[in-house]
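User: For my dataset I need records formatted as: sequence, then structure tokens, nothing else. Please produce one.
Assistant:
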Amino acid sequence: MTVFVTRPEPDATRTVAALASAELKAIPTPLLDIVIADAAAPPLAKGEALVFTSRNGVRAWSATGGALTAPAYAVGTATAEAASEIGLTVADIGGGDVDTLLPVLMAAPATGFLHIRGRHSRGQLVERLAATGRPARGIPLYEAKAATVLPAPLLDALRAGETPHGPCRIALFSPRTATILLRLLDDCLGRISVPAQIFCLSPAVAAALDKDRFAQVVIASEPTLPAFIDSLRSGST
């Protein structure tokens, strides 16, 4: 089978390599392009901790010269690994989404939090922390720009209904990417159903889809890459 990986680079290539290690053929077909802000990272207040809800936030913090002295909190293991790689000390990790990260932050000893995020942000992490009396602020240090057309390999497979290696399978890792896929399908093919299997990292991703337009929608048991790979294997049998 062939899996079209829609997440932005460099994560698309990283995911394709992970799938190849699991003997799954995949092609990077990003529907988002990450653009780092042309600005310096803001200074940290005394006692303030960093919060990252994506690897892109970690890359943006590093690229804009962010300080590495504050403790960092990460949404999941992949983001935590990225933070460690740039020299940050990861104090704690959530379970892969904002809902599991929030109680971790509530129990943290920090006097405040700086959430490094993209211009398009979900989860309302800062607002939810503020509602509990925990000082927090969010700084957009990158933008995830949406593709304006479907990548050619994906469009060809959708038109044909399959690939040379079997049915068309699309991997979605965020609700925004799911929304972009629907819009580009409408633009390129019209509002039709397509014989494609969609594999989603989480229920939130699946909720952004019009499920009736696809042959099958499969959701990973948890929002991690190993669980996602398991869903590809079990959902493709």
